[in-house]
Amino acid sequence: MDINDAGLIRADSDNQKIADNVVEDSIEFNVQSTDPKAWYAHGDTLVKLHQYDNAVDSYDKAIALDPDNALVHKVWNSRGVTLGSLGQHKDALVSFEKAIAIKPDYVLAWTNRGRTLRLLGQYEEAVTSQDKALELEPNNAKLWYSRGNALGVLGQHEDALESFDKALALNPDYAEAWYARGIALCMLHQYIEGGDNHGLLSNHLGRHTEGIDSYDKAIAIKPDFADAWHSRGVALGELGLHSDALISLNKALTINPDDPQLWSDRGLVLHFLGQYNEAVESFDKALAINPDYALAKKNRDIALERNKKKF
Q1: DSSP SS3 for 10
Q2: What pLDDT is recorded for position 5?
């Protein structure tokens, strides 16, 4: 099973031996072939060579030769994944829906449809598609994780948290799910009833302590998980634990020194620690990577002014 950069999944070819026999540098292939399986395998080989446009043509040929063959749903799925690699997500969606129309219980196509809908910003439909895939395959941790991500974008953090918990119950070593769970927890808001605030937001920090625990789980599984170190640092900073936050952000920067947001967040923490000169240096690093980073520029100016008043 192969996963492309967009997270779309390609089924293993039933004709892999045919594909493996193709000479990669010359792509020896009988273009007069009338065997749809051969064209399907040829398409898979072209994908391996990153010749995506030609691969789509091969899948089209396989479908045209025998639109009712037993593998055609897989051909449509592979066509969709390849179009996704080309960034043609709307066309990819059509291919996945063709696969589903032929084989309604094809989990792979439902999964890819959901992920493609996410890429298109159609998050509610993406969740519906993931729900269908989960009906067919309820013990798939990756499906629960994907569903949680889509719900998170919709702001449905409680439901997202439930999905991440499902994923982790199936795979406790799923670092990305622990990380996503941490984000969901930090996004949750606590409300209290009664009192002067009439049940309004009482703690904008949400469940940060629990979120940090989830980031720690992710890091324990995957120590070089830069995003988890970053989010851990941000959460600690929002709790006012700036020295601890700085340690996490420094760790993230050793893994990913080219992230302007990381440098900017580090600058903010240094600012709160009263280390204005060092804060300015961090904001400068952020701006060297991304000169158009307006927030870093604004915070740099503030830190610079504070540094001048210090003396």
Answers
A1: strand
A2: 53
